[in-house]
UniProtKB/TrEMBL annotation:
UniProt xrefs under SUPFAM superfamilies: L,D-transpeptidase catalytic domain-like, PGBD-like
Domain of life: Bacteria
Protein name in UniProt: Murein L,D-transpeptidase
An annotated GO cellular component: extracellular region
Stretches assigned to the L,D-TPase catalytic domain: 112-224
Pathway in which this enzyme or protein is active: Cell wall biogenesis; peptidoglycan biosynthesis
CDD domains: YkuD_like (cd16913)
Active site: 182 (proton donor/acceptor), 199 (nucleophile)
InterPro entries: LD-transpeptidase, LD_TPept_cat_dom, Peptidoglycan-bd-like, PGBD-like_sf, PGBDSf, Transpep_catalytic_dom
Amino acid sequence: MRSTKPPRRSVRPAAHPVLFAAGAQSERVRELQARLRQLKLFDRNPTGYYGTVTAASVRGFQRRQGVPRTGTVDSALWAALRARTQRPAHDELYPPTTRPLDDPDPRCRTGRVLCISKDSRTLAWMVDGTVRSAMDVRFGSAYTPTREGQFKVDFKSRRHHSTLYDTPMPYALFFSRGQAVHYSADFAASGYTGASHGCVNVRDKKKIAALFDQVRAGDKVVVYK
């Protein structure tokens, strides 16, 4: 006589929920990057954006753990990473980004001026000779150099996107035929290993956001060596 009991089904363990994946952007992603950096798996400044570099770093940690290299972070992997690292300090999450300022060009000493030094790789926002704020900047490569001279801010675009290079240019302050001062996530992540297409890149998002609100069209821009 045949058994009438239904066949047993194998029960698979429930998958751990994915917490971080490509395209995510948050303060927890910044913490993830800082913890990976403690293990020398992430060699850039934390940005809070989960891109290809972060995914590659996660795969490196997964390789160490002997788990599938998916490039995403589930709850189990996050717990393992936290167990092997320390809670990041503020300077690990937000590394200092202010280089020493150069002596300002004489053209920067009067009026409202974005005073940009190629030698010190800094931008000083000056009003009547007084520095109101300062930030690190980088410039174009030898093939796409940032123009030098005295200009003025032609227009501002808070959420600009370059149609020429298909790349975001947040907090853009245009001053010379398509060249602008703007925030660069790549500069924030990789520092001076890269270059712009001619624009003046800023890596401190909070500083450039505050600067964007203060600068007006018509303000002077001086780029000098």
